[in-house]
Every structure is written in C-alpha cells, then in structure tokens.
Amino acid sequence: MPLEPPEAQAVKTLTWQLDGRSSRSSQQAPDGAAQPATAPAAAPAAAQPEEDPDLIGLDIWPASIALCRYLTNHPELVAGQRVLELGAGMSLVGLLCAALGAQHALLTDYEPQVLAHLQDNAALNSLQQRCASLRLDWRQPAASLAPEQQGSWLRIVAADVLYASAVVQPLISTLRLLLHPEGVALIGHQVRRAIVLDPATRLPRLEDEDEPLEKFKAACAAAGLQHRLLSSRETCSNRDSDPMVLLAVGGPQARLAELPLLPSES
Questions:
Q1: Which structural domain, as residue segments, surrounds residue 183?
Q2: Does the structure show a pLDDT above 90 at 55?
Q3: Domain total for the chain?
Q4: How many CB atoms lie within 10 A of CB 181?
Q5: pTM for the full model?
Q6: H helices then E strands: how many in the chain?
Q7: Are 39 and 60 spatial neighbours (Cβ–Cβ below 8 Å)?
Q8: In this structure, what is the dihedral angle of CA atoms 220, 224, 225, 229, given to the nearest 10 degrees?
Q9: What is the pLDDT of residue 194?
Q10: Tens of pLDDT along 9-19?
C-alpha cells in the first residue's frame, strides 16, 4: 500500500501510460506497461527554513510530466543506461527511466521524508531491483558519492529543480562532479517569473525573465558546460499557464546537437 505522506491524508496516484495501455497496479515493465507514482494532494508553497524539512518534493510538478513525455518519445536516450535523477521528489522521471529500460536508476534527494517515498514508489512499481535511492546534498555532493561514481554518469535527469537562484551554483557544482565528459543532463523546467514592485509605477509586475533559469544558463557557460534548448512549449497542466522548457546540459565532449527536439521545435 502507498506510504501515507506526513503532511496530508489524501494521496494521489498518477498513472503513466505507455504503448496504449494503462494500469494502477504495480508492474515491472521495461517492455512498456504503465508505471504509477504517488504523491500528496498538495505540497508546501515554498521551501521551509533550513532546520525544518523541505517537503516541496512531495508532489508531482508539471515539468516532470513534460520531461516524461519527451523520454517516452525517445526511450533510446535512457535504455541500457545508468541514470541518476537529481532532486527526485516523487521520482516520476527516474521511475519512468527504469520502466523504459534503464540498466539502473539512482534516485537522489536531500530530505529524508522524500527519500522514504522514493523507496515506496519504486516498490509500488516493482522497480526496486533496478532503482536505489541516495541522500545527496548539492552543497557537498562528493561526501555522498563513492569516487568511482564521480564523473561517471552518461545520463542525468532532473525536473523543476531551478525554483530559486540560490540553488544554481550548487546544482552546477553537482553536475560538474557527476557528469561523464560525454554525459548529458536532461532538465525539465517550468518558466516562472517573480512578481516585483515596479519602481516607476509603484505597481506590481512580472519580472522580464525567469531569474534562476537565466542564471543557470550563464553559470553553465562559466563552468565550461554546454547547454542546448530542446523545447519551448505551453504547459501540460490545465492549472498553470507558464511555458515549459527542456534543457540539455553536457560536458565538453557531449554531443548535444544530436539530441532529438520535441516536435514543436523540429
């Protein structure tokens, strides 16, 4: 049975459908059966202070669905690969990678309560033999990873991790530590612009740019990482109006130009 989340009684189940079939039961299905994932009905609106648990990961955010759609259309990107998910949350993306034939998926997050759900969701989908979870602090990533894991990952996935400018540099450092020279990180992001007070009119307005996203692009270049926009499309959620983007980030030898674009960008 699904583990009851600590902050909500209601649990929602999302069923991902592959090859025209769907299921709410847990099945190991690298050949294309559906994989459900569970999450609380709601997540906190913002991260909690350092001493309190940050439970923002206890939900399925729209960018993870957008990234899953891309991977479902291009399973060859993860099939047979070792895949690491950063900021996994409920790990919809990481579990899908395992279902699409990834050799192994390492699902990482920082919060212990979120990690407990990772294990449970893998078991719900009968993927526990192909998935492992790990507590990973982006501020000290080397402390959590064996030396042989560093610089060894050809595939990294992450969704909705650029929610604040403060995470940009830790994320960049983590990517540099983890990525193989030919490795690629696929990052799904929902564009969000902060509301600020216009100094001229003294009225609230949206910022012109998504500050964390733009800082991340600049930080990639400064760190010697390539980045390429694979998509820019309207949201897949009826509740949200901000666009989705899919970024590929890689080391100096990564062949980002060979990655497929979403149909809207082709």
A1: 55-256
A2: no
A3: 1
A4: 11
A5: 0.77
A6: 5, 11
A7: yes
A8: 60
A9: 56
A10: 345 566 666 65
